[in-house]
Inverse folding.
């Protein structure tokens, strides 16, 4: 009974006494009934006395059952004081939002070539043009922990969207260019926008709901009708919030003059 509580123990004791009450009352009643069929007075009197003794015992059992039901718990708690339950101390506050486990580290895994100089820091925070704000289909709030790495511009990409021979300066003629990056903590359905600028004018754009993984390697590309010399800029937005930018230049094709070999 080590696994029983005090309330359960009191209930079991009351049940046992109730069973004893029923047994003694039934035996006493049977003794009194059987005494009426005895022909001898002394035997009949003895049998009736035994029956009444059994009924008196049953009466005491009835009192014990009543006492146990009414006061058994208080008596048990007086003899065995209950151990106070430990109140859990709120040592930490549960956050209402689910913390997403990043699938990759927020540190960009793309290592730029040492010969490439860092992109100049943009002083003014770029704003998403009003036209693209009106095109946002899903009004999902971007995850504030969403991050993008530095955008690396290249003419080709390898496996896992890795840039091949990236640079910050390219020579004409050119085809499609790619801006590769790593990302983490993105949420499906949030609107993301990539804009390619040529001296303040948009030449390529893409604005769609995000449908990739929460973390990995991504890219944006641009293939206008004709590249021109000058400075270019790539801007990435989540919702209407600017996240990262990159700048590069396009120069005229350099021509080399072949050396003349003197005729002997």
């Amino acid at each position: 009974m080590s696994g029983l509580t005090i309330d359960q123990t009191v209930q079991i004791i009351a049940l046992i006494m109730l069973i004893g009450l029923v047994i003694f009352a039934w035996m006493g009643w049977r003794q009194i009934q059987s005494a009426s069929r005895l022909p001898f007075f002394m035997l009949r009197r003895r049998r009736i006395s035994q029956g009444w003794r059994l009924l008196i015992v049953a009466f005491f059992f009835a009192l014990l059952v009543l006492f146990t039901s009414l006061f058994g718990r208080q008596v048990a708690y007086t003899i065995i004081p209950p151990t106070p339950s430990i109140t859990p101390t709120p040592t930490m506050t549960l956050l209402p939002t689910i913390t997403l486990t990043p699938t990759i580290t927020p540190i960009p895994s793309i290592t730029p070539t040492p010969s490439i100089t860092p992109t100049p820091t943009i002083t003014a925070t770029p704003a998403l043009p009003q036209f693209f704000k009106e095109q946002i289909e899903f009004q999902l709030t971007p995850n504030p922990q969403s991050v993008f790495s530095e955008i690396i511009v290249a003419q080709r990409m390898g496996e896992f969207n890795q840039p091949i021979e990236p640079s910050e300066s390219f020579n004409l003629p050119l085809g499609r260019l790619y801006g590769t990056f790593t990302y983490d903590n993105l949420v499906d359905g949030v609107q993301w926008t990539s804009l390619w600028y040529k001296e303040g004018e948009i030449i390529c754009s893409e604005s769609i709901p995000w449908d990739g993984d929460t973390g990995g390697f991504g890219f944006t590309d641009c293939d206008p009708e004709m590249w021109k010399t000058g400075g270019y800029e790539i801007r990435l937005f989540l919702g209407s919030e600017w996240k990262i930018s990159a700048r590069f230049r396009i120069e005229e094709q350099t021509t080399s003059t072949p050396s003349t070999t003197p005729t002997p």
Q: What stands out?
A: The chain is about 30% helix and 25% strand. The chain has a mean pLDDT of 79. The CA atoms of residues 185 and 250 lie 33 Å apart.
